[in-house]
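Example for tutorial group B:
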């Protein structure tokens, strides 16, 4: 199979104090959720707002190109690690739905 289809380029946008480990975790999660889908490109946004009054200051968002259609998933949580975990699940669910239709 074409390597591009199995390992699409993932572009990142980050905002706030996002660590390299969090970025690597997001890349692993997105790749796992999209494995075998034929995704051709992915953009991931990771953001942390430094405001302790917010209940969910961390946001993880992904936009992937699947079979010429855009797949969008996002999650907000108290920590970026939790948001990434939620994002992985939401991407997998949406990708499976897109394959079914």
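The residue assignment follows.
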């Amino acid at each position: 199979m074409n390597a591009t289809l199995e390992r699409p380029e993932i572009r990142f946008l980050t905002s706030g104090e996002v660590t390299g480990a969090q970025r690597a975790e997001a890349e692993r999660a997105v790749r796992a959720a999209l494995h075998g889908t034929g995704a051709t490109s992915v953009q991931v946004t990771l953001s942390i707002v430094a405001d302790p009054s917010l209940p969910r200051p961390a946001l993880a968002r992904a936009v992937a190109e699947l079979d010429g259609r855009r797949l969008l998933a996002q999650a907000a949580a108290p920590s970026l690690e939790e948001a990434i975990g939620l994002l992985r699940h939401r991407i997998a669910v949406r990708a499976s739905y897109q394959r079914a239709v």
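The longest helix spans residues 80-100. Compare this with the pattern of hydrophobic and polar residues in the output above.
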